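Hello, quick one for you while I still have it in my head. A protein chain has come my way and I'm curious about its shape. I'm sending you its amino acid sequence along with the backbone structure tokens. I'd be grateful if you could look everything over and explain what you see. Here's the protein in full, and shout if anything looks odd to you:
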Amino acid sequence: MQITQCLHTAILVTNLERAEQFYGKVLGLSKVERPMKFPGVWYQVGDYQVHLIVAPSVPGEEKHEKWGRNAHVAFAVADLEVAKQQLLSQNYPIQASASGRAAIFTQDPDGNIIELSQVIS
């Protein structure tokens, strides 16, 4: 087997409107057409997609105190300080990367962990 590309990540959410506010408005992801009949939303990030799927609950696994050691989705941002200030201004929690790299972690309204990293090319 040879895996050639990562296509998408599915994230369980309990409230689609609240999740769309976070992923679409706060993170600024672009919504795309979705051919499924069950509740959810898809977002496009380059060649990659994020699929939000409505579920009655989100599994309550025990989370490590350092958020980067938990299951998470990572996105590159152009300016980490701008991203940090936008999250704080809208009362989303943030945690700096324990590694010291230019990255922060936040949580969506359901507690799913999102990493934002400033990638310098």
User: Anything to note?
Assistant: The helical segments are 16-26, 80-89. The chain is about 15% helix and 35% strand. The chain has two domains: 8-54, 67-118. The radius of gyration is 15 Å.
